[in-house]
Amino acid sequence: MSDLLTWTGAAGPVLNPLLLALVALLLLAWVLQFMLSLFASGDTAVVLADGTLAARRGPADLLGMAARWLLLGVLAVVLAYLVLGLVLPGKPAKGIIGAMSAQFWPVWLALIVTFAVSLRFKRKLGLYGKLFDSPVGMVGFGIVLFWIFTAIFADIIITHDPLAQLSGLKNKVPGTPVPGEDNSYYLLGGDSLARDVFSRMVMGARRVLAIAPAATAFAFMVGITLGLPAGYFGGRLDTFLSFIANLVLAFPVILLFYLLVTPEIRVTGIPIILAAALFIFPVIFFCVLWNSRYFTDPKKRNIYVGLTLVIGLWAYSGLAFNADPLGVWSMDPNLLNVFVSVVFVNAPTVFRIVRGIVLDLKARDYVAAGQTRGEGPWYIMLWEILPNARGPLIVDFCLRIGYTTILLGTLGFFGLGVSPESPDWGSTIDDGRRLLSVFPHPAIVPALALMSLVLGLNLLADGLREESLKD
């Protein structure tokens, strides 16, 4: 049997001491920066021969420059681990980090292509292109894209079936070789059921990203469709819709999720009723959108509205009632419970955000100009007010995906996820927590994956907010 893989492989003897030295110096530089910040800075300006003032670098400036270079050095060493993993032959030479880097090769390729094209044409890509002017936004976007591409290429990246249980690999440490298979390893160890932690982490990204963005998009459809008229018309409509939204928000989120996702709730038919009510909103939204835009062009309006009704109601019948005759649109009962719960809980918050934005924007001059031209209320709401609210809504959309990801992880941790054997991160954390003090890796790996995705979404939202405020 092969020996255990080391974390850094053949590159370890050279790169490990270098990395430790750079990290130690970086921490020292940060500590010294903090200590200097506690004291008042002295005069940092000098008078030149021509009488002008010039800045003089003080100790804090030199420490800041040193910290930046040390941080770049740390990142360069980490990058070296990943690159060597792609070029060194054999997994023993690659090590665990290098072997994982080699498995992620389609993700690296997709990231390089995406960033290269985006940077080349960023001035023509609107708010998305401006995102690349923000270092924070670029880092967040890179992390989010990493997990998106991981979900897309999960079947190529995984080393074993995430549900397969292999004899003799129960609770094995990272880098354990698989008996009877040459050059095959459990890169991040095995869990309590002898399943590959690395493959479950990778496939868990697909489970999370298949639910969180789509459910958040549905919640936005509901919130926008109801929030626009509530803020624009006001009156009794606003009072009624705001009361319903506040009523839903009055429940503790976790308790509401727990009540909506329990298997017993399916017997009552409540998930199907909620799905029937919530899933129709995208159809309503797009029908109203096309009708308001092409009201003066009946031919175009009828084509767009007709296509929306055909495709929308086809998807609606399959997703809400599992009644698609062609079998293209369908949703597992457990997934329907989770999906409906996410939409139901998030929609009132989106409604309040949209309503507040509309109350502010409806007094602007371009709204008055549209009313003077004789434009209809829905045209003004959808084609005048909504585009000018896109900045805050895009930022909130990114943040809300992160919140939804955390909620999905919480549900999986409580055993209320999509299915008991699902590799979603919450369920995997719950499986690993029972032996956390003895075998921490089955729980720590998905926890770090969940944390990194949410961190990336928050950084992306910060970058989008920063750039949208410049418009």
UniProtKB/TrEMBL annotation:
What residue intervals traverse the membrane?
20-48, 69-90, 96-117, 138-158, 208-228, 240-261, 267-291, 303-323, 335-354, 397-418, 438-461
Query: Topology versus the membrane, per the UniProt entry?
Result: Multi-pass membrane protein
Concerning PROSITE patterns, the annotation shows: ABC_TM1
Q: What SUPFAM superfamilies does the entry give?
A: MetI-like (SSF161098)
Listed under GO cellular component are:
plasma membrane
Give the superkingdom in one word.
Answer: Bacteria
Residues in ABC transmembrane type-1 domain copies: 205-461
Q: Name one GO biological process term.
A: transmembrane transport
| Alphabetized Pfam families for the sequence | BPD_transp_1 (PF00528)
Q: Where in the cell is it found?
A: Cell membrane
Q: Which family does it belong to?
A: Belongs to the binding-protein-dependent transport system permease family.
> Could you tell me what this protein is called?
ABC transporter permease
